[in-house]
Amino acid sequence: MTLPVWVAAAARAAVLVLKGGATPASVELKIPGEQASRSVPVRAAARLESGDQALAITVCDPGRGLDLTRGLEIWVRATCTSAPGPGFQVTAGAGVGRHQQDGALCMSGFGRELLDLNLRDLLTAESALELEVVLPRGQELALRTSNAAFGVVDGLALIGTQAEVQTSASPDQLQTLLTQLRDLASQAGFAGQLTLVIGENGLDLAQRLGLSQRQPVLKAGNWIGPVLVAAAEAGVRELLLLGYHGKLIKLAGGIFHTHHHLADARFEVLAALAVQQGLSTERIRPLLQAVSLEQAWEWLASQDEDQARALWMSIAGAVEQRSQAYLQRYGCPAMAIGAALFSRDRQLRWAGPEGLRMLGHAGLHLEPLPGDEGEGPSLR
After folding, report:
1. Are residues 268 and 250 in contact, defined by beta-carbon separation less than 8 angstroms?
2. Structural domain range at position 59
3. Which helix (H) or strand (E) holds 174?
4. How many CB atoms lie within 10 A of CB 177?
5. Four-residue CA torsion sign, 280, 320, 248, 345
6. 222 falls in which pLDDT band (50, 70, 90)?
7. Does residue 373 lie within any of the structural domains?
8. What is the pLDDT of residue 262?
9. Is the pTM higher than 0.85?
10. Which of 30, 114, 141, 206 has the most other CB atoms within 10 Å of its CB?
């Protein structure tokens, strides 16, 4: 189950104990959109010495597949406040992600709805509750995610739009995706054009740019290679890959299953492309020492913006070239592949030659970098 479910279970257990109930071995949770409740195990729960606080702990079990939250302890401390009830406020404790811009807790709407649904019967008019969520290993694990690239700092974001984990690295997920692709390509009126987006951020950007109104959009997991092959075999003639540059760069290195547990090499690929672009050792070494692709981009752009732009455009070009080589390896029908990469602020910044052509046909252009002169962007 997803992280918000385990947070809600710990929150309910903490409030139950705070209200004088016995320590539960599990709690029954109502899930939005589901008729039956789910039993979620609780590791521990107890009132604290002050009497107006209680702490409960759950341990995340994301189910089958690879997930870095497996075994992660979730602590929720519930406190009675002097504010009039009923109601509750959720705050980010240690290891919980916050939005860098305003410091607010990074939690999905599903997570908040889950808390409201499962705490409503425990709230009273006498006082409100404060719920502090703590992830003891959250900050450590966040370093292995792209959270920081999207402005989430200090820990793991409490995201998830449903109770079950979508296992993007599992064979079951691949089969589901391939079925969706074949159904899409067999629809009447399909013109052979497809946008393949990488992750929720790519899907959000495709919708914001209006790409989803111009041609079908399919969200991929980590199985990029098999999806490219299946798309060519299903009759797709032009495929636009749209994704975050810190993810798509793996394809530029010939890595077509992109889950972080299985392959990385992002900085090695960046360094190799930098050598091809003629960058000096003094420029390449700091790129390898960066903590994220976004930081590498920002540093190089601060040294030489034109050089940085050329290197990142070469990444997009390499994605196109390696993707075509992947198709040829499997003897696939001809399919044009374009690559378009966006930055942390979800602005379309770089594209390969085919990507530029496909974007142009859709009436879109790359977003100019801050400080660029000339006409404004057309991605509005």
Report:
1. no
2. 3-156
3. helix 171-185
4. 20
5. positive
6. confident
7. no
8. 67
9. no
10. 114
